[in-house]
Amino acid sequence: MITTLIFDVDGTLADTERDGHRVAFNLAFEQNGLDWHWTESIYDDLLSVTGGKERMHFFVKKYEKEEASREDLNELIISLHAQKTKNYVALLENSKIPLRPGVARLLNEAQEKGLRLAIATTTTPENVTALLSNTLGKDSIGWFEVIGAGDIVPAKKPAPDIYNYVMQEMKVKPEECIAFEDSINGIKSSLAANLKTVITYNGYTQDDDFSGATLILDTYGDDDFPSVEMQKLMSKPYFELSDIL
User: Fold this and answer.
1) Which residue segments constitute the domains of the chain, with CATH numbers given?
2) With bands split at pLDDT 50, 70 and 90, how would you rate the model's confidence at 96?
3) Catalytic residue status for 243
4) Is residue 224 annotated as part of the catalytic site, yes or no?
């Protein structure tokens, strides 16, 4: 019996990558006098790596090789990541990156059905709470029994650690849970944790291999923004939990 829904954040709850995280990173680089700049195409490449600090290390090795030998590189990246988080939170507070279609409806439906909610993400706890507060209100943070985020586990996605951590904290088994993801690293993580997984792909991940997913959608959908995939699969405008429970 399904009792628990575990959500990824970036790309799943909201399209935060292109106009959120990428912009915040570029601003942090500028604030620190660096000429680094992540274009949309570069960022698309960087998304193969999970975690902001890890992403910067990957960027330096591939695109800024002369910086790779800096003795203070690790300290610089930690500092940049902290500044980037501040920038991202400010972006949310000032412009409110919207949730993806159907997310708010789905979360409300889950609560009405008495399902337990959790988050499993590689982004920082500050980023998670800022997104929730500025899209659903501060009370929404309390909807999620466990927020597994950031460096709380040793290995980030595609390793299953973050999902295993969340399930351990909630004292639930994989067969009681459904994961909601948007990317190849996300589904690798959830499947490695033996979880049924619903995918909502986005512009960055639409060509990823989602073999093993229980359901693959473009969005969860709403009356005002129907899901193309749901219309194809079930001749209805949006996904409901009853479709998989």
Assistant:
1) 4-15+98-243 (3.40.50.1000), 17-95 (1.10.150.240)
2) low
3) no
4) no
Asked if residue 186 lies in contact with residue 14, where contact means CB atoms within 8 angstroms, the answer is: no
Which is the catalytic residue, given 10, 161, 208, 218? 10
Looking at residue 100, its amino acid is R
Span 157-210, pLDDT tens digits: 999 999 999 999 999 999 999 999 999 999 999 999 999 999 999 988 999 999
| Sheet containing 4-7: order of strands | 144-148, 116-120, 4-7, 177-181, 196-200, 215-217
3-state DSSP of the chain? CCCEEEECCECCCECCHHHHHHHHHHHHHHHCCCCCCCCHHHHHHHCCCCCHHHHHHHHHHHHCHHHCCCCCHHHHHHHHHHHHHHHHHHHHHHHCCCECCCHHHHHHHHHHCCCEEEEECCCCHHHHHHHHHHHHCHHHHHHEEEEECCCCCCCCCCCCHHHHHHHHHHCCCHHHEEEEECCHHHHHHHHHCCCEEEEECCCCCCCCCCCCCCEEECCCCCCCCCCHHHHHHHCCCCCCHHHCC
Q: What is the pLDDT of residues 207-234, one digit of tens each?
A: 999 999 999 999 999 999 999 999 999 9
Burial of 50 by CB count in 10 Å (0-12 exposed, 13-18 middle, 19+ buried)?
buried
The answer to whether residue 95 scores a pLDDT higher than 80 is no
